[in-house]
């Protein structure tokens, strides 16, 4: 299990497609992305009913993350995160509050907050004790086609105001991600770049190179 104190400082943040539990190769795809270098796996289900079969697969995904010491985060659903003993939860603007989530999950669990393009919200989340915040969408996103856009200037300003990690999200690829790392993003969050084809391992490795180039 990865606690809040053990959350990595930078790297690739992989978000699963909403249909991942219906994909018969889901476990293999997630493991490939992890082997390619992902530091975080976020399970994104968006209001899907949790059947016994789906719960069993979620537990399998959690165990894969445990095997490779990768943080396993549940999107939106605090109760599911608590039930399956995930490492934490990621909360959007319309989800349960940070304080309520912290009461349910305890002080050691990871809690990330979506801040979109809002510097004030990011500063507030950091002050409350969030593990990390997420900004975006930086580019056109196939997952969220109507997502608010965030500019590089907001990323730069936020990186100067807060000390917790910043996750950049929205249409990120190996070709456009470097500028985000150069301007303050600690993590690059990707869905399609990692899961739309059967090349998750190669895509993850290519994205991870962006961090190596910037830190050299």
Q: Would you give an account of this structure?
A:
- By secondary structure, the chain is α/β, with parallel strands linked by helices.
- Helices cover 39% and strands 18% of the residues.
- It has an 8-stranded parallel barrel with strand order 1-2-3-4-5-6-7-8, surrounded by 6 helices.
- α1 (26-35) runs parallel beside α9 (200-215).
- The chain is globular and about 45 Å long.
Low-pLDDT ranges: none
Quaternary state reads single chain
Largest β sheet strand count, sense and barrel closure: 8 strands, parallel, barrel
Helix coverage percent: 25-40%
Share of residues in strands: 15-25%
Protein structure class: alpha/beta
Output the number of helix runs. Answer: 9
As laid out across the biggest beta sheet, the strand order is: 1-2-3-4-5-6-7-8
**Element-by-element helix/strand order:** EHEHEHEHEHEHEHEHH
**What's the gyration radius in Å?**
16 Å
Shape: globular
Features:
18% strand; eight-stranded parallel beta barrel; 216 residues; alpha/beta
Topology of helices and strands:
Layout: E1 11-15, H1 26-35, E2 38-43, H2 52-67, E3 71-75, H3 78-83, E4 88-91, H4 98-105, E5 110-116, H5 119-128, E6 132-135, H6 152-161, E7 166-169, H7 178-182, E8 187-190, H8 192-195, H9 200-215
Helix pairs in contact: 1-2, 1-9
What is this entry, summarized?
The chain has 216 residues and is an alpha/beta fold.
């Amino acid at each position: 299990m990865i606690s809040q104190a053990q959350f990595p400082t930078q790297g690739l943040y992989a978000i699963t497609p909403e249909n991942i539990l219906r994909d018969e190769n889901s476990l293999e795809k997630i493991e490939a992305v992890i082997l390619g270098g992902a530091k975080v796996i976020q399970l994104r289900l968006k209001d899907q009913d949790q059947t016994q079969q789906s719960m069993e697969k979620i537990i399998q995904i959690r165990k894969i993350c445990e095997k490779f010491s990768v943080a396993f985060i549940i999107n939106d659903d605090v109760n599911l995160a608590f039930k399956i003993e995930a490492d934490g939860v990621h909360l959007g603007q319309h989800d349960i509050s940070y304080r309520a989530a912290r009461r349910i999950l305890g002080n050691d669990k990871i809690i990330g907050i979506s801040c979109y393009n809002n510097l004030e919200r990011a500063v507030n989340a950091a002050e409350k004790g969030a593990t990390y915040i997420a900004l975006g969408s930086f580019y056109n996103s196939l997952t969220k086609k109507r997502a608010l856009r965030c500019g590089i200037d907001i990323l730069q300003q936020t990186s100067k105001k807060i000390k917790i990690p910043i996750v950049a999200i929205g249409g990120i690829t190996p070709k456009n991600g470097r500028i985000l790392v150069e301007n303050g993003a600690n993590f690059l969050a990707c869905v399609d770049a990692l899961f739309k084809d059967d090349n998750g391992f190669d895509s993850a490795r290519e994205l991870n190179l962006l961090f190596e180039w910037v830190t050299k």
